[in-house]
Design goal:
GO terms for molecular function: 4 iron, 4 sulfur cluster binding; metal ion binding; oxidoreductase activity. This is Heterodisulfide reductase subunit C. Keywords: 4Fe-4S, Iron, Iron-sulfur, Metal-binding, Oxidoreductase. α1 crosses α7 and α8 packs antiparallel against α9. This protein has eleven helices and no strands. It starts with a helix and ends with a helix. The chain has two domains: about 100 residues, Alpha-helical ferredoxin (Fumarate Reductase Iron-sulfur Protein, Chain B, domain 2, Orthogonal Bundle), CATH 1.10.1060; about 80 residues, no CATH class. It is about 60% helix and about 0% strand. The protein has about 180 residues and is mainly alpha-helical. The chain binds iron/sulfur cluster (SF4) (2 copies). The site of one iron/sulfur cluster has 15 residues, from α2 and α3.
């Protein structure tokens, strides 16, 4: 009996954690599958979006947190738009990524690496500095020489600028965002 109560508490705790962070009622999902039918990357996910929701309902914390699906999600919000129960699934995916990072359980580490580098490029130059982003991404994902042959070809055809072009200074904006997220925490 005690063990059953403990299991029930764990299930509720996981669902409540995600509901608290995402501000979504996960219990409202009735598994119609419309989110998955419209998701452009469901074919590549280990668990499609409706199954991720069902797993949260069932309290399968380890399975959800170690899934590739939460990192393959492109935040396109198609699922959110299609859901007849008005569940913002894109926001739930976001919350799952936040928790996975906080708990150091990132199953597809290339995604947060690219996110960080992409944002740094925007902060420093106001746009995507392609050579810097690809070079840093390959370096930090432990594949430093991966795109060198292609990069040389593109450079010789004049399709690659080695120097970044600045589109403005966004450091102030990023600083304010960081301060706001610190205030919220
Ligand atoms: S569309 Fe909404 S109700 Fe239907 S399975 Fe997806 S999350 Fe659940
Ligand atoms: S937000 Fe994510 S889960 Fe939803 S449809 Fe887009 S890629 Fe799929």
């Amino acid at each position: 009996m005690m063990q059953k109560l403990l299991i029930n508490n764990n299930i509720l705790k996981f669902k409540e954690d995600i509901e608290g962070l995402s501000k979504q009622r996960i219990s409202n999902c009735y598994q119609c599958g419309k989110c998955t039918a419209g998701c452009p990357v469901a074919f590549a996910m280990d668990y499609p979006p409706n199954q991720v929701i069902r797993m949260i309902q069932l309290g399968l914390r380890n399975e959800v947190m170690s899934s590739h699906a939460i990192w393959f999600c492109a935040s396109c919000e198609t699922c959110t738009t299609r859901c007849p129960r008005e569940i913002d699934l894109a926001r739930i995916m976001d919350s799952l990524r936040i928790i996975a990072q906080a708990e150091n359980k990132v199953s597809v580490r290339e995604v947060p690496i690219l996110n960080q580098i992409f944002l740094k490029s925007i902060e420093l130059t106001g746009r995507v500095y392609e050579v810097g982003v690809i070079g840093a991404y390959n370096f930090f994902s432990l594949n430093p020489f991966k795109d060198i042959p292609l990069g040389i070809k593109m450079f010789l055809k004049g399709k690659l600028n080695l120097m970044p072009h600045s589109a403005g200074n966004f450091r102030g904006l990023f600083k304010r965002i960081r301060e706001k997220s610190c205030d919220r925490n």
